[in-house]
Please model this.
Amino acid sequence: MSRLAATGNAHHWQLQRPLFSLLGARCRILDEHDNLVLFAKRRALRLRERIEVFEDEGETQPALHIRTESILDLGATYVVTDSRSGEGVGMARRRFMKSMLRDHWDLLDAGGNPLGEAQEDSMALALLRRLVADIVPQRFHVSVGGRPVAELHQRWNPFLFRADLRMEAGADALLDPRLLLGLAVLLMVIEGRQDG
Model:
């Protein structure tokens, strides 16, 4: 995936998702210059979660494949795979019980070994969000081995779900940016169901 090649520099992306869609969730990921980097699509009415990520909106250049093996597993593990090479990038597992009050995800390598976690910023704000939905923007902190490596921050907009994703300089040595972007897509289209 040439557009996601590690550079050693800080990464910054903007994510956009319409609040309502009858055809399943769609998410655009742009770079700091508003150029499309990735386009993700989750088709509606599927028993198993399956999200296809492309480098173009025409869906001709596959980039990532995100899927879960289980049906109706509230704490499902989502497997992120490089669509071109078939290489396992890693996994994101939602901690269902912890996420009832404050969203929490575990990040695992391709072999299922723990890498890090992503968690909503605070219990108080998480509870407030559950009461007033989109009025209080979400913020997730991503860490590897206790070290902060990235942050996803929602920007409030009544018509478009928007978020900024920033990865610290050098953090791609600890966490594959493809896994981070896969997690961000999940947060946009899976967690995003609560608001549309």
